[in-house]
Structure formats: C-alpha cells, structure tokens
Amino acid sequence: MRDVLQKVNLGDIGFVSIRDGVIVYKLEIQQKGLDYPFQIGNGVKFGDSTVAQEINVTVRTWAVIVIPTDGLFDNVHNKELEKLIRDGLAD
Q: Which of 9, 15, 34, 40 yields a CA-CA distance of 20 to 30 A from 72?
C-alpha cells in the first residue's frame, strides 16, 4: 500500500523520508543565502506565500519521516542521521 505525504514548505525547515535506514527523499531548503531563509509576513523584507512549495511524496509502510527543528540539518550530516534512525529502530 502506498500513501502520499502532503506538505507545504517555506524556508529552512524541510524534511527527509528514510526507508530501510537510508534517506530516500530530502526536501531541499529554500534560502536566499546562508542563514537567510525564505520567510513570509507583512513588510518589504518578507516574501509572499507564492514562494511556498507544495510537496506530494509517496511514502511506504515503515518509512520514517523526520521533520526537524531549526538547525538539525545544519548540525547533523545525512549519514549520521541515517545511523541514528537505524540504531533507534534496532532497539
């Protein structure tokens, strides 16, 4: 059985889908420069909601979806994240 994960994404909080301990999908972050993610709001310095990404990803049973807090992908390498998930599922 396949299901679809639907997400609207804006800025530097993406997500990864991990299957069998390996990242099979990683949503790239949206940023204008280092530490300058896309944002929406009122005012000249903000963008509008049209820059948001609408994502539909097919996921399988037992897929692990990681939706991080700010900074996870800046501080944890993909291989390290995969190992953490594998070790956690093995327990």
A: 40
Cα R_g (the chain), whole angstroms: 15
Q: Which residue has the higher pLDDT, 79 or 58?
A: 79
Query: Residue 50 is part of which domain span?
Result: 2-90
Predicted structure pTM score: 0.73
The rounded distance, in Å, linking the Cα atoms of 73 and 52 is: 19
What's the structural domain count of the chain? Answer: 1
C-beta atoms surrounding 8 within 10 Å: 9
Sheet holding 16-19, edge to edge: 22-26, 16-19, 64-66
**Cβ neighbours of residue 3 under 8 Å, at least 6 residues apart?**
58, 59, 60
